[in-house]
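RECORD TYPE: inverse folding
INPUT: structure tokens
STRUCTURE:
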């Protein structure tokens, strides 16, 4: 192999690594993917996110499919026991889920969705603020 060919292969290899690294950084920076979001592994956030998914499946895009809410209120009550600082809000959301399932009332499920969505966002923000206050690494 000639020296020029080795240099060309080396240059192409470095360019490919640069493109791959740039693509990786771009993917990591897309906020919708939340790849840097350390809060997604917190048990309270996981539980709230699961309830949020159930509520989206039940009332999202003007649909009403209450079967997606079976067990969701119980999961929120279990979180309320574990996280007493959020117990009242979690109990309110659970009650708003019980009502639509029992009474076939979509509007109460929409209220529960707003409660859970707002609480999930507040918990994530609080976890981020606490991490910044303690100067903890993002991992």
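DESIGNED SEQUENCE:
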């Amino acid at each position: 192999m000639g020296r020029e060919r080795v240099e060309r292969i080396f240059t192409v290899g470095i360019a490919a690594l640069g493109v791959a690294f740039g693509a990786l950084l771009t993917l990591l920076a897309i906020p919708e993917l939340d790849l840097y979001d350390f809060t997604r592994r917190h048990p309270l956030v996981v539980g709230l996110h699961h309830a949020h998914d159930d509520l989206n499946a039940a009332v999202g895009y003007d649909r009403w499919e209450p079967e997606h809410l079976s067990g969701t209120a119980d999961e929120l009550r279990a979180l309320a026991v574990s996280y007493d600082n959020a117990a009242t809000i979690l109990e309110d959301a659970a009650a708003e889920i019980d009502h639509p399932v029992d009474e076939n009332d979509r509007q109460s499920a929409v209220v529960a969705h707003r409660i859970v969505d707002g609480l999930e966002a507040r918990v994530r923000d609080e976890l981020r603020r606490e991490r910044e206050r303690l100067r903890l690494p993002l991992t």
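NOTES: The chain has two domains: 3-31, 38-134.
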